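[step 3/7] fold_predict: job queued, chain A
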Amino acid sequence: MLYRDRMLTCPRCEATLQRRAATESWLCRGCGGVAVEISELIRILARFAPDLVPHGGVRGLETRALAATAPALRCAACNQPMTPVELHGVRLERCYQDQLVWFDETQLDVVIDAAIADHEARKGWGRRLRDLLFAN
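[step 4/7] structure written:
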């Protein structure tokens, strides 16, 4: 995708985003937000809650579209309005054209924590007990 070779701009504060080394994510040093490419988001979720990773790959990631309650944020790559979506109960902005998801400062941590909690809740009582008894 062409945006990987361009400077991206924060949709919140319009600062230049800094690409993180070896990942498809861009951090805003101004407001603390981060733009994450959807396949990178799936890799992050796979690390923390592997059974929550969609079988359909990128296309299988379930984000529920929400009604816009405020003016839409503009995509950091294409500057088009992003779609408000929900992932693990967290309201985010997603650009379906560039496959980017925008997380405000703490939202990525909240999504990861929710994914881990969901992962734990799906375990049976026997597996949870085994994990507690044999944890390192």
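[step 5/7] annotate
The mean pLDDT is 83.
Residues 33 and 104 are 4 Å apart (CA to CA).
exit 0
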